[in-house]
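Thread: quick sanity check before group meeting

JM: Hey all, I'm pulling together slides for Thursday and realized we never actually wrote out the predicted structure for the chain we discussed last week. Dropping the sequence here so it's in one place. If anyone has concerns about the input, flag it before I start.
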Amino acid sequence: MTRIARLALLLAVTATISCDRISKHVAVNTLAGNPSQSFLADTVRLEYAENAGAFMSLGAEWPAGARIAVFGICNAVLLSALVTVAIRRQWPRLALVGVALFAAGGASNLLDRIVYGNVIDFMNVGVGPVRTGIFNVADMAVMLGAATVLWASYRAERHHHA
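JM (edit): ok, ran it. Output follows.
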């Protein structure tokens, strides 16, 4: 990987974590303790939530030790393993961008768990009764990163069979 590519990936990770940290800080200071705010005919809602679990609060009711083990230690090990495999196996650039986004989002949420014991969420989107769960910028980075890795894999597979 070239020096410019490494710098670009580092910049993507830094920007992702910074945007997440700043947006969570703003959410804590402007949304916590206040009613939700609605925008674009209720397509976007901003509402403060603290999530002790994972996606859709999965595991939020688990004992603290189990949450620390699964959402803390296992998360850190899996993120480290993913980054290590991607770099050592020299995944294509697009896949590395996806891994960088995924790892940055995961690391920022992991930082929340270490510092606060939960993850700060504040966005919800949908139309009528069809809505997402409450999420944050790090969650968007994780989803975009996963989608990017899948797309890169699809492209590589298609190119391989062409």
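AS: nice. The mean pLDDT is 92. The chain has one domain: 3-161.
JM: adding both to the slides.
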